[in-house]
């Protein structure tokens, strides 16, 4: 698809990409636009929109307004089929491969797939691996799955190999939103060695150095979300971008 090709070309050019995750559950009609524009103006390459829940009926209008304003890809990162709404450039079509809950292995995909197809939306097949990050996270609780132990990076690797053989092209190594600790670099390095998939990682990344270390380990898209809820700092955004754009 067009968005996936553009992301792959940008990864080739810059080494890795800086993604900002925007909270879709905003009652303030312009909050998504403001946060997205600020990220776009200060070095972000990609805007993700998603969360465990979405209860915002105005989201399609807010996404349309954001798309008018920024030239970056705006990609849906859904927590389930009910979150598929129009207006996005693409959707991460996620399978929670680290879990053993059939709801997130096939049910949500069957429900969401028909919606995505009827919208004509581009889907990027993405394996999703939840990795233990200290305290239990919302995604662990809501998905009713156990995360991969932090000290077992080879377990991530074997899930990544299976996902690649199933045809997935992206893998999201996830610590969980607001995680105490980010995904350990060994998990990224093992998946990098064993597969060609593009590696997205996020959860608990609060410092540019933490982002840079994950790019050095082989990640190609670094996601930050929670940090920007409190910190509205263009300079910090730029520092993140610089730490991630290793090829400039
Ligand atoms: C969550 O990986 C993302 O899915 C981002 O996590 O909110 O902790 O930055 P944070």
TrEMBL record:
EC numbers: 2.5.1.41
Please provide the record's keywords in A-Z order. Answer: Lipid biosynthesis, Lipid metabolism, Magnesium, Metal-binding, Phospholipid biosynthesis, Phospholipid metabolism, Transferase
Its EC top class is: transferase
Provide the catalytic activity annotation: sn-glycerol 1-phosphate + (2E,6E,10E)-geranylgeranyl diphosphate = sn-3-O-(geranylgeranyl)glycerol 1-phosphate + diphosphate
Q: Which GO terms describe its cellular component?
A: cytoplasm
InterPro entries listed in its UniProt record? GGGP/HepGP_synthase_sf (IPR038597), GGGP_HepGP_synthase (IPR008205), GGGP_synth (IPR010946)
Q: Which domain of life is it from?
A: Bacteria
Q: Which GO terms describe its biological process?
A: glycerophospholipid metabolic process; phospholipid biosynthetic process
Q: Which terms in the Gene Ontology molecular function aspect does this entry carry?
A: magnesium ion binding; phosphoglycerol geranylgeranyltransferase activity
- In its UniProt entry, what is this protein called? Phosphoglycerol geranylgeranyltransferase
What organism does the UniProt record list as the source?
A: Hallerella succinigenes
């Amino acid at each position: 698809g067009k968005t996936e090709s553009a992301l792959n070309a940008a990864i080739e050019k810059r080494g890795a990409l800086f993604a900002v995750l925007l909270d879709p559950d905003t009652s303030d009609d312009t909050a998504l636009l403001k946060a997205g524009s600020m990220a776009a103006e200060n070095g972000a390459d990609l805007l993700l929109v998603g969360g465990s829940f979405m209860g915002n009926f105005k989201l399609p209008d807010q996404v349309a307004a954001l798309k008018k304003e920024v030239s970056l890809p705006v990609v849906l990162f859904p927590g389930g089929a009910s979150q598929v709404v129009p207006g996005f450039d693409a959707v991460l079509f996620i399978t929670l491969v680290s879990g053993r809950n059939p709801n997130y292995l096939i049910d949500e995909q069957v429900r969401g797939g028909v919606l995505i197809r009827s919208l004509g939306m581009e889907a990027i097949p993405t394996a999703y691996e939840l990795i233990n990050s200290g305290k239990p996270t919302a995604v662990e609780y809501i998905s009713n799955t156990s995360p991969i132990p932090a000290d077992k990076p080879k377990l991530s690797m074997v899930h990544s190999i299976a996902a690649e053989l199933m045809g997935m092209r992206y893998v999201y190594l996830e610590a969980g939103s607001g995680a105490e600790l980010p995904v350990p670099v060994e998990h990224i390095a093992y998946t990098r060695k064993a597969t060609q998939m593009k590696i997205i990682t996020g959860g608990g990344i609060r410092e540019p150095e933490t982002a840079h270390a994950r790019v050095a380990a082989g990640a190609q898209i670094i996601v930050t979300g929670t940090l920007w809820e409190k910190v509205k700092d263009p300079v910090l955004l730029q520092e993140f971008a610089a730490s991630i754009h290793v090829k400039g």
